Amino acid sequence: MEIYNLYRPQLSAKNILVIFDAVHAVASHAHKINSDTTLRSKLQELGSMTQMQDPPLLRLENESYQICLTFVQNLVLDRPPSYDESEVESYLTDLCQEVLQFYIETACSGQMPGSSSTERPHWLIPLGSGKRRELAARASLIVTTLQAICSLEESSFEKNIARFFPLLSSLISCEHGSNEVQIALSELFSLSVGPVLLRSC
Description:
Distance between the termini: 45 Å
Number of strands: 0
Oligomer: single chain
Pfam families: BIG2_C (PF20252)
Radius of gyration: 19 Å
Strand content: under 5%
Helix content: over 70%
Shape: flat
Number of helices: 8
């Protein structure tokens, strides 16, 4: 990030999106490993045998996604040469959707499978301490993501509300490792979702 910040004024939008793609690949790879419980347990076994610490993959994943978000948000602010508003908006909304989806998969993993609105509701299985720690570690990224969605221009938010609304609704029913997520979610509904719904009435 230091190099990026140093050369930020000279970088075109295309340059930054190339860097974005590279960092996003790192984030996606880290997430893939984090989601593979078998591989993670093998890494932990290897760590105990070699007396090495567990690799900080969750931190790598969070930081990489955070950097990606920063790149795209700065593009919106800077509007450098070769800036394409619709392209950057697509990058931003896709990234926000991806991050929220990953979080929801983790946070709502205690829900009993097969429950639907037509079936009798099942009890939720409380998340274990490991999952709670993971959610707490992801909280700042989710808050930043929700704030990024909230900062979308009105027309852009309205255009993308159909893809975000199911995710935001799922977040309401999820367990969270930090109340920061609930506060950011409440602000998003108050400042962005609410006005759109009121206008449509």
